[in-house]
Specification:
The protein has 536 residues and is α/β, with parallel strands linked by helices. 60% of the residues lie in helices and 7% in strands. It has helices at residues 3-17, 29-44, 66-78, 82-107, 110-122, 124-130, 135-152, 159-171, 177-191, 200-222, 238-254, 259-265, 268-282, 286-291, 311-325, 327-339, 342-345, 359-375, 379-410, 417-429, 445-452, 457-465, 491-496, and strands spanning 435-439, 468-470, 473-478, 481-484, 502-506, 518-521, 527-534. The model has no long low-confidence stretch (mean pLDDT 89).
Length: 536
């Protein structure tokens, strides 16, 4: 390993590992459920619903198994913590940097590969993915490993087997890769067709991917992954259905056409297809890539573009450079970029998590552009290079400040911080009250308490299938801690139904319905939770 590559990997590791347990400050719903599933498997061999070594996880709306099984060793080291939940994603980020170098070295050159690795280590999009427990990031790493071994298989056929295994694992890690990976495999086979031989190893590799694809489709249909993906499919979203139906009905009422013609020109299928293309084109837009990025602060903590401002001119220069040097690589990267946002466009607007597969070719284009710029000569070129460097040096400290200093405090709402603080308060008060009630109206409360309290998985198994009733309200019970939801007007009644002292922690909506409530606030003044107590 060269010293330059080692320095790049050390930089990538430092940026991804720094304060990873506390930035973000807490775990959001998906992190909570996946880390507890991994913890439960470690301790009992069952997920938190009590199913032995499943190949599909029902918590969180249904998810493939890849990330959870990869997290088990880290729960053994750290317990059910943020460090464990994010470890696979952090290591994937470092692995992505290395794999982008290796792939670019093979497709273009080693110098461009080093620049691509450097781009990957500091680009906002990749850093955003690295610091949360995002299944798509692990899937991205696995798919890049699949591509790397596919390229190596040009010289040694056995690498086709490794390639197939990694591609198959990526499909079993994130749902959108069910569409992305088969298309991508067809793409790379087409562009490597002169060096691709349909040997027994290659056939076995393809068979492994087909089996993985078929299993993913089966589980999504039969086990409820459709609740996680299908319900956000643009054709299934109730608000969009109503909006589209209203538009179609209104246009029909003004149309002079009749019968089959009016249905041909005005129908829901045409409108939804138009929405798909709007989402797809938006993934390549300036607003998403350069200016504002993903609008969800969980996926874009700095609330800036997915790449730096200088990325756009570098991409253009990279396309020019590759068109002159290797048109085959240019075509392959272009096809890769075009495949990237297909799946995310079926479920909504440009999305940093679901569209992350398009990031590697963008980074390679940028690296090629930078290499091209550094090797051009002339006064105007030198001035242009100075201008780009100045832009980068202006934006970099702004990004680092917003990412590492501002966002941990600014975006706590998106990381279920109220649930963490309420869980910690309940743990501190367990021996001071006969009963503690945690409102399930606090976002992700029912997932957070078992994680932060490190509740015995056997107790969670039982509660997930045997919730008990207080009146008509269902509750989870862990020793003297009860988690459930009830209308604000019924809280006093429920508290009075418990013998002895009771502490209740609820939401802002409960203010005015409680006994002498105490409001716990965040640093911005927003309400984290509301507390009240009943003495014996």
């Amino acid at each position: 390993m060269s010293k330059k590559l080692l320095l790049i990997l050390l930089l990538a590791a430092a940026l991804r590992l720094y304060d990873i347990g506390n930035n973000p400050k807490s775990m959001y719903g998906d992190e909570l459920t996946l880390v507890y599933d991994a913890y439960s498997l470690l301790k009992t061999g069952k997920d938190q619903k009590g199913e032995s070594w499943p190949l599909y996880f029902s918590m969180g709306g249904g998810r493939p198994p890849g990330y959870i099984y990869a997290t088990i060793p880290f729960t053994a080291i750290f317990g059910p913590t943020a460090e464990a939940a994010r470890a696979v994603s952090v290591l994937s980020g470092i692995g992505v940097v290395l794999l982008i170098f290796l792939i670019t070295r093979n497709l273009v050159s080693e110098k461009v590969g080093l620049l691509a690795g450097l781009m990957a280590s500091i680009t906002p999009w990749e850093l955003n993915l690295s610091r949360g427990g995002f299944e798509s990031h692990f899937a991205l790493f696995l798919s890049l490993a699949g591509l790397h071994f596919f390229i190596l298989a040009r010289k040694k056929q056995i690498f086709y087997l490794f390639s197939g295994i990694f591609f198959a694992l990526s499909i079993q890690t994130y749902l959108t890769y069910v569409l992305t990976i088969p298309l991508f495999i067809l793409l790379i086979i087409f562009f490597q067709r002169r060096k691709f031989s349909l040997s027994s190893t290659a056939v076995l590799s393809i068979l492994i991917v087909v089996i993985s694809f078929s299993f993913a489709i089966y589980t999504s249909i039969s086990r409820g992954s459709k609740d996680r993906f299908g319900n956000i499919f643009i054709y299934n979203q109730p608000d969009l259905q109503d909006k589209v139906s209203e538009k179609v009905t209104r246009e029909k009422s003004f149309s002079p056409l009749e019968g089959e013609l009016v249905r041909t020109f005005h129908n829901r299928y045409t409108e939804f297809t138009n929405l798909f293309f709007q989402n797809y084109v938006g993934s390549f837009g300036l607003d998403f890539l350069i200016l504002n990025g993903d609008k969800n602060p969980r996926q874009n903590p700095a609330s800036m573009g997915q790449i730096y401002w200088v990325g756009l001119p570098l991409i253009i220069l990279g396309i020019i450079f590759l068109s002159r040097r290797t048109k085959l690589t240019l075509a392959l990267l272009s096809g890769w970029v075009l495949i990237g946002p297909l799946a995310s466009s079926l479920v909504g607007q440009p999305h940093a998590i679901r569209s992350s597969f398009m990031l590697p070719p963008i980074l390679i284009f940028m690296a090629a552009g930078l290499y091209y710029l550094l090797n051009l000569k002339g006064e105007k070129i030198r001035l242009f290079g100075i201008f780009l460097i100045t832009l980068f040096l202006i934006q970099l400290p702004v990004f680092l400040y917003r990412f590492y200093v501002l966002s941990p405090n600014l975006n706590t709402h998106f990381w279920s911080y109220s649930a963490k603080r309420a869980s910690e308060t309940a743990l501190d008060a367990k021996n001071k009250y006969n009963h503690i009630i945690l409102s399930a109206n606090i976002s992700d409360m029912e997932f957070a308490y078992p994680v932060y309290a490190k509740v015995d998985p056997k107790d969670v198994h039982f509660q997930n299938t045997n919730k008990y009733m207080i009146g008509e309200f269902k509750f989870y019970k862990y020793e003297n801690v009860h988690i459930g939801a009830m209308p604000s007007g019924r809280i006093k009644e429920v508290m009075n139904s418990f013998p002895g002292s009771v502490l209740y922690l609820g939401t802002e909506q409960d203010i005015g319905f409680l006994y002498n409530e105490a409001v716990q606030r965040n640093t911005d003044g927003s309400v984290l939770f509301v507390a009240t107590q009943k003495e014996k």
